[in-house]
Protein: Protein ApaG
Amino acid sequence: MYTAETRAIEVSVEPVYLEDESSPDEHHYVWAYTVRITNRGLERVQLRNRYWRITDDFGRVQEVRGKGVVGVEPVIEPGKDFQYTSGAPIATPSGIMVGTYEMETPGGERFDVAIPAFSLDSPHRTMRLN
Structure:
């Protein structure tokens, strides 16, 4: 589990490699990741936008931006959380993801919340020492 906190909003991520959906012979590796966003603050927030930076084993970067997550822009009340699962395919047996969520307060203030960097590791990765 990977965790980060920004302005009393905690984001935890747990990635899982999906062997059944991956095709290593075709350079197609797939992960699911479950995200839990917990509002430890005193006012509600609404998740408006997401930004992901996905880097594969070769250093190739893919950026993903969009409204909400999994088709919704959830409102998270103080003391509550929101959880969802999504997925990411890449062309190498490992990589890393990191990003931000743009949140909005009832007063219209918008701020970014860090999504912790997390590893995408499959059993197909060969270790290289130097």
